[in-house]
Amino acid sequence: MNRWTLMLAATALLGGCATAVDEAKRQAAGERELAKALEGYTPGRTLNCIDPSFAGAPQMVGDSLLYRPVGGTIYRNVVQPNCPAFRGDQIVVAELYGSQVCRNDRFRLVQRGGGSIPSAYCRFGSFVEYKKNR
Fold first, then answer.
1. Could you state, in order of their start, the residue ranges of all structural domains in the chain?
2. What does the pLDDT look like over 71-100, one tens digit per residue?
3. Residue 132's closest CA among 70, 50, 62?
4. Distance, CA of 42 to CA of 32 (rounded, Å)
5. Would the pTM of this model clear 0.85, i.e. be above it?
6. Helix residue spans in 38-90 (DSSP H)
């Protein structure tokens, strides 16, 4: 191998390490943000579907979507694997196949402000109901 090939290989390895470190930092920050958002709430039953009319727009927190209807309940959805990472100020555009948002329904992420190409399709996981502690 010549010197240039070795330098390219070293650069690729170092770039991969930096990406892994950045991803670990992003994941840890997301977990802290999620813990803060669910502070004072207790997990309850797991649901396959929720009614979007009382759930409102989701908030992206870490690897989860949080739906906060009026009252003391939060619905947490951990999206299925292979979904592009949540980042920045994105909007969830869901495809509903009935009157509810359900596990395995598809959605895409679109950058707020328009002008961007939607992400690849993602799928909702199960919804976990969190009740406010009394």
1. 38-132
2. 789 999 988 777 876 666 788 888 888 889
3. 70
4. 17
5. no
6. 52-55
